[in-house]
Design a protein that fits this description.
The protein has a 5-stranded mixed beta sheet, with helices on both faces. The N terminus and C terminus are likely disordered. It is built from 4 helices and 5 strands, in the order βαββαβαβα. α3 crosses α4. The chain is an alpha/beta fold and 157 residues long. It has a single domain, classed as Ribosomal Protein S5, domain 2 (2-Layer Sandwich), CATH 3.30.230.
């Protein structure tokens, strides 16, 4: 006997879901968390892209840095939310949302040997719909990896 449709399924119950759906293509590079302040500071001096729901900083690690018990092909990611985002509950919510977006996007679009820092934006990260937050991260990763530099630096009018 099956349960009526108006009764909610238990968490993790995958009955009725399409099991034949293709799995997303993953680069195979493991995601690791950035914990040291010097790595956050190094990322802050690298490429940046600001989107509506987050700011992404990304940089390629040097060979000398890769020997620090981190596989050279690992994708490292860090998360930060300043007090501008709000009290601890709001900051933690914003970082949880960034963590989930990173788990979904970076294995697919992130490059091995790169560090990424995702910064929560005040009022936007926690309130933005999750699919738009993921799209913000996708666009930001593509922009950080693009060779085109914005601005008029070095050009004469």
């Amino acid at each position: 006997m099956t349960a009526p449709e108006h009764i909610a399924k238990a968490p993790g119950d995958k009955s009725g879901e399409n099991r034949d759906a293709p799995a997303p293509v993953v680069s195979g590079a493991p995601l690791q968390t950035i914990l040291k302040r010097r790595d956050f500071l190094a990322a802050a001096r690298a490429r940046k892209w600001a989107a509506a729901g987050l700011v992404l900083q990304g940089r390629r690690r040097r060979e000398a840095e890769a020997g620090e018990a981190v596989p050279a092909d690992a994708i490292r990611v860090g998360f930060t939310a300043s007090k501008k985002v709000g009290k601890a509950v709001l900051r933690n919510r914003a970082k949880r949302r960034l963590r989930e977006a990173a788990r979904a996007v970076l294995p697919i679009l992130g490059r091995p040997g790169w560090d990424y820092v995702l910064i929560a934006r005040a009022g936007a990260t926690a309130a933005r719909p999750f699919d738009k937050l993921q799209e913000d991260l996708r666009v930001a990763v593509e922009k950080v990896h693009s060779d085109k530099r914005g601005g008029r630096r070095g050009k004469t009018p």
